[in-house]
User: What shape does this take?
Amino acid sequence: MSILSKTVASYLQNASWIRRMFEAGGKLKARFGEDNVYDFSLGNPDLPAPQAVGAALRKFAERADKPFAFGYMPNGGFGWAREKLAACLSGEHGVALTADDVILCCGAAGGLNAFLRATLNPGEEVLGIAPYFVEYGFYTENHGGTFRAVDSLKDTFKPNTLALEDAIGPTTRALLINSPNNPTGVVYDEGNIRAIVALLEAKSKKFGRPVWLISDEPYRFLCYDGINPPSVLPRYPYAVCVSSFSKSLSLPGERVGYVAVSPLLAEKEELMAALNLTIRILGFVNPPVVGQHLMAGALDSHVDIGIYTERRQVMADVLSDAGYAFQMPAGAFYFFPQAPGGDDVAFVNTLLEERILAVPGSGFGCPGHFRLAFCVDKSVIRRAAEGFAKARRTVET
Amino acid sequence: MSILSKTVASYLQNASWIRRMFEAGGKLKARFGEDNVYDFSLGNPDLPAPQAVGAALRKFAERADKPFAFGYMPNGGFGWAREKLAACLSGEHGVALTADDVILCCGAAGGLNAFLRATLNPGEEVLGIAPYFVEYGFYTENHGGTFRAVDSLKDTFKPNTLALEDAIGPTTRALLINSPNNPTGVVYDEGNIRAIVALLEAKSKKFGRPVWLISDEPYRFLCYDGINPPSVLPRYPYAVCVSSFSKSLSLPGERVGYVAVSPLLAEKEELMAALNLTIRILGFVNPPVVGQHLMAGALDSHVDIGIYTERRQVMADVLSDAGYAFQMPAGAFYFFPQAPGGDDVAFVNTLLEERILAVPGSGFGCPGHFRLAFCVDKSVIRRAAEGFAKARRTVET
Assistant: This one.
């Protein structure tokens, strides 16, 4: 009999695509040298943290020897840190948020788990929109729920409102959206958000209980061409925004994120009490002390977006020149081109022969495409150009 | 219909005793001033972190501006950090541990949740020994299990092996012990550990699958009178030690802990793969970067134990002089005296009238006692002496 729980034992049988590419990449790098492998598989920001982060760290270090420097604080983070965060988010989202409308937590992943633990009953459903971040399924199943993804519109990857309307039923507890999107780079516009909200309002009324709208937004800061993603918070009382500083401050390992709730929510106090509880009982207890100091000290900064803008253009040129079909990402740092030949897994293996690491769309519930993360130097993208061209020709002939 | 999950809504109806005392304390402090309230309710270490922590932080801060300084690492922590930890634990536990035998996580609470998610099937049971840390119940229910506590031996609070033998059944997945113990200060001796291991071996054989032994040990570093707590790791293949640096390095807010597995475990690789997965999918993703640097730089240090030794004596004198019945704690920083009059909740309210904050034993599954945390200055303990004496007299008359 297994020493593990049945679900976890079964998860281990199916290693994620990102994991498999990571392992394949390790072998290639060992054989050909790090510089001769073009790794577009990981969304691990390579830009240094903004200088304000280092400055905040050095300032905090001055008082590290004081009692309680690393002590417990409220489960949702220091009051002063939440106050600063709320002020910053008020500007970003166009709503008046106070320290009582936000909680800090261990990354967006921690925030999503805390929220689902707080709201989901076993047997209930969380809906997503494919392609989607594969971890959403695990987060939902952690709390006894079922995750189901509804396909987005072909090619544009915008929400398919009609399909969503069909999918929402009496056991649907939440719709989980992600804009700017990983893996497609799509940013939902105001019309998309309005349509989703109208749908959720109608369904909440029909089923006699609210369907939550969870908006996972770690890439909000990273949009191109002057796009400003509309916020869900001023538009729907049962909306929450979950995010982190992993990408904007290049802090993914320090685990600082947050949940912000709509100020329209009548049951706000109840939800915040629940989140403070679930942060505690899931074992997070509180967001890391140091990370909160870094976040508060660097809230007005972010990594150099100009660098990502340049890389996006270089990658677009490389893909165009090689004849790939793709949509220009409006946000985040991913391309999601069509897989030549149509079989994404086969094509990713073809790319591997060119020492190019990508992730098949199958890993995001969207076969026929593949994901390229461009958080690598421009020179890496340029050097991969020949491999991209060759891989495409291999499949066409 | 509630916006929350049923379990979380019900948890919110029953605020923990620690929480209630915290709130009562806040009111007293506002009314009488901080210095006139004697707060023994919280296990929040008041000693500063050892100097090695500040030094490690300043050293890390020097390279905070480099790319990937705060980047992702393996879910179980940096290889170099696990190597250092394993070397340190090998000495403490008297077994040869390598980096592959330990994972770092977000505090002991994170480690316990990651372990339970990895091993527990819904409907299975986790056994504990009362009195116990109240969070164990939540941690178990998070993963669909049921927590059940078996009373310890009266007065000594040592494990009641006969009662445990009766309690372990075919759905028992794990026994969760805590030594040095919160709230009693009891340290299990080698005989206790041997008896538990013999029992679990017999039951594992009987039911055809292993019963895990989880040893929660954040107070291992803090024993008095030269006591050295025996380790479970060399004694039972299905034993894991879960701990943190919250108390030993006064780092509770930074969330650094670990799970160490027995090197005797044949399925070690499987368990470690599962823990790496559950750390990821529960949303921890990895232990905080900065905390790992602090831990690694200060592994050989701990807070000044001499200070806790002195406080223990002062508290013992105060309680003796006032005529309380108690057992001298062998470890940790708690006393767990009998409640005069027998009703712990009533007596804790009597103490409140003397502006003394304590936690009733009912909050630990052990009515008739109350817990006093002595992570406060000696002067606070001394100034509370009169109140302790008066409260006891009030009940006796």
User: Anything to note?
Assistant: Chain B touches chain A through 84 residues (CB under 8 Å). Chain B has a mean pLDDT of 95. Residues 190-207 of chain B form the longest helix (18 residues). Chain B has 14 helices and twelve strands.
